[in-house]
Amino acid sequence: MRHIKDRDEASEFINNYKLNKELIDDLRISEADLSFLDLSEIIAKRLYANEINFRATSFVEVSFRDCEFISTDFDSCNLEYADIADCVLSKANFFKAQMKNTEIKISTCTDTCFDYTDFTNGSLYGSALQKATFRFSNMTGINGEVSIFDECDLCGANLTNGNFKEADFIGANLSDVIALNAIFISSNFNGADLRNGDFSGADFTGANLQNVIWKGAKVEGCKFDEEIREQVERLI
């Protein structure tokens, strides 16, 4: 494994691989400040960049596999069309990041901050996101199928047209969300807070809705299991 601690050395090393369109494999970066760089289109496997400052760096169309970015700062980064899979991004910071069409699949993102991100048409398929925050994020059209959002804070997020089939939202905060026509088929909302959210046209068939707080929520045109609909309407 190569270990780099210097900004200039890291930038030169990565850009050489980028120029040659080669795979970066088994690289550890520590201590270096890698903010405000253009690292677009790099391809990396087993890249370990924990606690690195990547603030405002461009990662457009990157490909990451089996990488670690624990407590890493991606504040205001551009990750549009990034393809990320089987990675650990726990406690990372994606505040105000541009993540249109970004895919984070089958990855671990516990306690991660996605507040105010633009995640339009992205994917979190099969990822573990316990206690992550998505406050006021634009997640329109996102694929969150079979993902775990337990105890997440999604207050004010836009989930319109999102697919959350078989996802877990146990104890999650979805107050004030906009989730028009979202798919929540067979999802688990046990103990979730859906207060004042707009779920018009959403599909909750087969979902576990025990102990959900519905006060002030809009459910016009929603699909529920027949035995659940009346219970929900009484709680609004």
Q: First CA to last CA: what distance?
A: 57 Å
| Fourth CATH level, the homologous superfamily of the largest domain | E3 ubiquitin-protein ligase SopA
- N-to-C SSE series? EHEEEEEH
Residues in helices, as a percent range = under 10%
Name the strands of the widest sheet in spatial order: 1-2-3-4-5-6
Average pLDDT rating? 97
Into which percentage range does the β-strand content fall?
5-15%
H/I helix tally = 2
- In the CATH hierarchy, what is the architecture of the largest domain at level 2? 3 Solenoid
Can you walk through the features of this model?
The structure is a single chain. By secondary structure, the protein is largely without helices or strands. It has 2 domains: 1-99, Pectate Lyase C-like (3 Solenoid); 114-236, Pectate Lyase C-like (3 Solenoid), CATH 2.160.20. It has helices spanning 7-19, 226-235, and strands spanning 2-4, 23-29, 43-48, 63-65, 83-85, 103-105. The relative contact order is 0.07.
Write out key terms for the chains shown.
Pectate Lyase C-like; elongated; 2 domains; single chain; 2 helices; six-stranded parallel sheet; little secondary structure
